[in-house]
Design goal:
The chain has 25 helices and 14 strands.
């Protein structure tokens, strides 16, 4: 759920909302409060909603874990779930544990389980609801492993008021999962799952007593289960987009668990729809524009490139445009006070205040950063894209443009497909080696002070594939905020606006 801070004036026209308003709401957890009230109203449907909300506000808010761990067979759900419950104290719920309870409902499923038939969905949902309503789950919270199995199950649970705060989906290539399934071993004493290649036990004694599972699947059965999972996984992703974290399970299990735990301990959830305000730094050629565009496209943010913004203002023939045009035409730097006035105006528009923004190209030094802060333009995340001077030079000086098609090429990484195209390529004068060296040195002269000004900024190596850099930026979004600002809920946005 996303909250829009929209107001109308007397004429019915939308007003411009100052950035301070959303930052005040974040600081005082107003977004959290409204989300809690709306969730409670939708779930409980009270006859007197006003009195109900008053009662909710009077209660002491006690947050307990509500976690779902999903993934295909052999992705490591059980290992992660057991270890996670030890850390957060939640009750570990699995399908087999629910069915082992001796209740009237479980006895009603006995015929289905004995005949290897699927339990009717309405009965299965009642079983889950009954288990999650018990005092231990209410007091300690819960972790559902492999539940729900479909979008329909997920929607039924949400309609009953059992909505997770965090959903983790493990994924790995099918060939890796098949190999893991065939090599699975069980510790008969603890029930822990191991694999002699992927996850060996630390103790030699444990390794000696490992056993092959009685129900070890064959290749065809593994393939069938994987296909069944793949048919339903997109529906689960769509349902839980507001609180979903997809984690690559094809890496050491310690790394997988660390990523899961970091996510679960974050406030990364839909009840804090804070507006992302992202600041990107980096030397020429580090890919700021590319990454800003990718973030804006996926999360429906406003991409604000300071240089492009100034050019747009200069072209619109406004009074401010006429003032800055001589600076741009002569190649001089536009005065900071003019830049800040233009930036403040742009970032105060409704698209920025309701959707969030990613800014690059400003500030260039600490003085500009201080003035940006004084103007109440406060980023919630700051990233420094790092790369060596040699790589920056290589990226910039070896790139060319086809004047006919507008396509861009690079002598090493993306050469022209033919000699004819190669012959007509042109280089931007700004990509000359002397110009690039000058801009790189200017960046280096200010970067240490900027990092000191933004001590909680995340540093990302830009000397990688663009998609890898983007994944690092996404991971940094759920970490600590810059300058002590609230946690950023980026998945709430992806559920409504991005691919």
């Amino acid at each position: 759920m996303r909250l829009s801070l929209l107001k109308m004036d007397a004429t019915g026209k939308p007003l411009r909302i100052p950035p301070e308003m959303s930052m005040y709401a974040e600081k005082h957890e107003i977004f959290d409060l409204i989300q809690t009230l709306v969730e409670s109203l939708v779930i409980d449907k009270p006859e007197d909603p006003i009195q109900y909300m008053i009662d909710v506000l009077k209660r002491e808010r006690i947050e307990v874990p509500r976690v779902v761990i999903l993934g295909p067979p052999a992705s490591g759900k059980t290992t992660v779930a057991k270890k996670l419950c030890e850390h957060i104290g939640a009750v570990h719920i699995t399908s087999s544990r629910i069915l082992k309870d001796d209740t009237e409902l479980t006895r009603a499923t006995k015929q289905n389980t004995e005949q290897s038939q699927e339990i009717p969905q309405d009965l299965w949902i009642k079983l889950i609801e009954k288990r999650l309503s018990r005092p231990d789950c209410v007091r300690r919270g819960w972790l559902l492993e492999g539940i729900p199995k479909s979008r329909e199950e997920a929607l039924c649970l949400q309609a009953s008021g059992f909505a997770p705060k965090h959903v983790v989906m493990l994924q790995a290539p099918d060939d890796v999962l098949t190999e893991r399934s065939l090599g699975k071993r069980i510790d008969p004493v603890t029930g822990d799952v191991y694999h002699l290649t992927f996850m060996c036990p630390a103790s030699a004694g444990v390794a000696q007593r490992l056993e092959r599972p009685d129900c070890l699947m064959e290749d065809k059965e593994i393939s069938r289960q994987l296909q069944a999972y793949h048919r339903k996984v997109q529906g689960l992703q769509d349902t839980y987009g507001y609180c979903l974290k997809i984690i690559d399970a094809d890496q050491p299990h310690e790394d997988v668990f660390d990523q899961v735990l970091s996510y679960i301990l974050s406030r990364h959830r839909s009840d804090a729809p804070h507006t992302p305000r992202i600041l990107l730094f980096g030397p020429p050629g580090c890919g700021k524009s590319l990454q800003a565009g990718s973030l804006a496209q996926k999360y429906n943010l406003v991409d604000v490139c300071c240089g492009e913004l100034l050019k747009a203002v200069a072209a619109d023939e406004s009074s401010m445009g006429e003032l800055i045009k001589p600076f741009l035409e002569s190649g001089r730097q536009v005065p900071d006070n003019m830049v800040l006035k233009i930036l403040t105006e742009r970032l105060s528009r409704l698209d920025c205040t309701t959707r969030g923004w990613v800014l690059h190209g400003f500030p260039r030094d600490v003085e500009q950063a201080e003035r940006l802060q004084e103007s109440n333009i406060l980023p919630s995340r700051v990233f420094f894209l790092e790369m060596s001077d040699d790589v920056a030079l290589e990226r910039q000086t070896l790139r060319f443009t086809d004047p006919v098609t507008g396509d861009r090429f690079h002598s090493l990484h993306n050469p022209a497909p033919s000699a004819k195209i190669q012959a007509r390529l042109q280089r931007n004068p700004r990509d000359a080696e002397t110009e690039v060296c000058k801009r790189v040195q200017e960046y280096r002269s200010h970067v240490a002070a900027l990092k000191a000004f933004y001590p909680q900024a995340v540093q990302v190596s830009a000397d990688q594939q663009a998609h890898t850099v983007f994944e690092c930026l996404e991971s940094g979004m759920v970490g600590r905020p810059s300058k002590g600002l609230p946690e950023l809920n980026i998945q709430a946005l992806s559920g409504s606006s991005g691919p």
